[in-house]
Each structure stands twice: as structure tokens, then as C-alpha cells.
Amino acid sequence: MTVWDDLVGQDRVVGQLRAAASAAQGVLAGEAAGGMTHAWLFTGPPGSGRSTAARAFAAALQCVSPDLALGAEPGCGFCDGCHTSLTGTHADVDVVGTELLSIGVKETRDLVRRAAMSPSGGRWQVIVLEDADRLTEGAGNVLLKAIEEPASRTVWMLCAPSVEDALPTIRSRCRHIALCTPPVAAVADMLARRDGVDPAMAAYAARATGGHIGRARRLATDEQTRLRRAEVLRLPLQLAEIGSCMAAAQRLVDAAAAEAKEITTDLDARETEELRSALGATGPGGRLPSGTAGVVKELEGRQKKRATRTQRDSLDLALTDLAAFYRDVLALQFGADVSLANEEMRPALEGVARASTPEATLRRIEAILACRRAIDANVAPLLAVEAMTLSLRAG
After folding, report:
1. Helices (H), strands (E): how many in the chain?
2. 3-class secondary-structure state, position 221
């Protein structure tokens, strides 16, 4: 097993990164840089594996397999450098993401200071920034200076959905690696072969999520996720009256809030207790030392922002499933010879297709996309979803 095995359906990208990792070995040996550079931008649609690709490349750069001396390619997956890089314990590989809505100047300056250090292992100092699209403008400018004048053994790996999500000045200084959505069949095969999922369930999950690897794995292994998705897909069939539109919108937003609470409650409690213990409070109700209230308040602020992002992410996934529902409707209306994401709902899809027109279906898809944009622009989720459900009813 090599470090590239988790990159499903990305043979072209694997070839590019393998060549660059081999060039990096030459740089360490004092040869010309060749295909190696100090800044990389990994882009691809959600679920394509851009962070996975960056982590695999980071591991290959740190590979210390004895077979390298015999001409083997870096990225064996078994040596200490590969193993610690992939498990997040390598001293010279930092994988940075955010649970908040954005990455600010302070966090970026900390990264830049880290990147300026010499690698302790004598190979590469690697910074993987998983959410480069969430950099604020000020943070982007701080990062730009670090990329313009990099340390000799520092490698930046930025991950974003598209090149447009990175500042023009940053992307112009990065080598671009573009990933594509993995084929549904490849994702289903991976779930069955590597995760032990029943082949029928694997095929369903891969098809329902359009090849999104992370969502497919969760859908295949979590019954609650499947139940929540089924509830979302019933929404288009429950919009006969204005009152039902309002009720459906409320249910959708409440479900997203409940899922976010389920995800964050235990994590918040654990973080709070760990901080109280670090500050010297004794017991769950112990009094905090004087002057520490600001630290606790800062943690509570981060947790609130994380809950907001988690709720938005959950709601966005529901809206993505809704868009896939109407995409299936549109395919049936045009008689397109394509597989349906929601094949198990074909009778309901055919009913909606017969009762509507392709023009109305396109307007409904646009209403869902407009709702996603509104929520991303900080419109109150309930207002945005109510406007969407009314548009879905109107067609």
C-alpha cells in the first residue's frame, strides 16, 4: 500500500505528484529543482480528495524508504516518514484546517512563523492549508508575502474548491493541481473493498452522493445520515400549500441545527473542561483563577462560530441533495440516458416530472442555488429556506 492509494479515480494527478516527489528527492541530493516547486494549489469539487492529495504528497516528500537508494519512487506508505505524515505526527508536516467561517490574520501569521523554521528532519517543512478559500483578505496578504519569499526547504500546499477561490496574486505563484470528481463506480468499489461495506449499499451511497468520497462513506455506514437524507428528499412532495412550505422550511433548518448540536456538544464540553483544568479549576464547578475569564470567553466565541459553520455545512448538504433530486427530474423530462442519483425514488421523480416542465425544474434548481448563495452571504437560514420553498412550490 502506497501513500497514493486513497486517491480514487485521480490517476493523472497521482502521476504529476509522483514525478514532483521524485524531483524533490533530486533537490535533496543537490540536483536541479526540475518539477519541484515551493507552493502548490490543489483544487477540485467537494469530495474529490484535494486534501487527501496534499497529505499524500506531503508524505511522499518525507519518505525515507531504503528502496529510494535503489531507484524506487517516494511514497512507499510504510516507512517512518510516510506513516507519521499520514497520521499527523510528523514534526515537519502541519495540516491546518478551520472549523470556523474564516481564517484570520493572527492564525496565518502563526503559520508563516512556523514555515520559516528549518525542518527538524533535514528534508522539508510542509504546511498543508486545507481551507485556503476561507482566508480573509488580510490573511491572504500575509500568506502572499511568505510565498513570495519562501524558506529554502519550505513547501506550501493550499487546498480550495477552485482557482477563483484563491487570491490572483497567490495562485499565480503556485503550481496548480486540478482534481476531478471520482467516478461513482470507483467510489463504490473503494467502499466495498476497503471499508467492508455491502456492495449494494456501497453502490447506493456512491450514486446518491455523486461520487463524493467522504459523504458516500458516511451515508453507507451511518443509519441516521440515511434517515436525514430521506427526510430531505421528501420535501419536494410536501409543498402543496404556503403553510406547508413554511413548515417544511422550519423542519429543514431545525434538522440542520440538531445535527450541528449533535456534532459539537460533546466536543465543546470536552474543550471547556480541558481549558478549565489547564487554568487550575478543580472539578466541574470549580472556581476559575482571577484574570482567566477572557480566555474562557475566547473559547466560547470560537465554539459559537464553529456551531454556526457546522449548521451551515449541514444545511448546505441538504440543499445539495435537493438539487440532485431536481436534476433527476430534469433528466427524466428530457429522456436523458443517465443514471439517477435517486434511483430508489424513481416513481416519485416520474410523478414530479409529469406534473411540471423542464423550464420549471430549471427555475427550481436555480432557487436552491440562490438559497445556498444567500446563506453563504449571511442571510438568516430560515428566511433563505422559506424563500426557496415558496419558489419550489411556484415552479
Report:
1. 15, 5
2. helix
Which H or E element spans position 267?
helix 242-279
Q: What share of the chain is helix, strand, coil (3-state, %, to 5)?
A: 60, 5, 30
In this prediction the pTM is 0.81
Residues 157 and 42: beta-carbon distance below 8 Å: yes
- The string of DSSP codes covering 346-358 is HHHHHHHHHTS-H
- Write the pLDDT tens digit of every residue in 341-395: 999 999 999 999 999 999 999 999 999 999 999 998 889 999 999 999 999 999 8
For 128-197, the DSSP string reads: EETTGGGB-HHHHHHHHHHHHS--TTEEEEEEESSGGGS-HHHHTTSEEEE--PPPHHHHHHHHHHHS--
Dist CA 226 CA 15 (whole Å): 36
Q: Which one-letter amino acid corresponds to residue 167?
A: L
What string of DSSP letters covers 76-122? Answer: -SSSHHHHHHHHT--TTEEEE--SSS-B-HHHHHHHHHHHTSPPTTS
